[in-house]
Design brief:
Elements: H1 6-26
Amino acid sequence: MKNLNFKFLIGLGLFCILAAIANNLRAPEGKSVEWIGGQEIREKTQ
């Protein structure tokens, strides 16, 4: 546990968050995700 570098883990987490935001911004309109409010829930079709 002493060898675990918490600064590196926090930096890695921040990098993942920034990469997810950048990926969402460059995704086509139909495939991007709304971050606040989530995705729309559609009715099941039978």
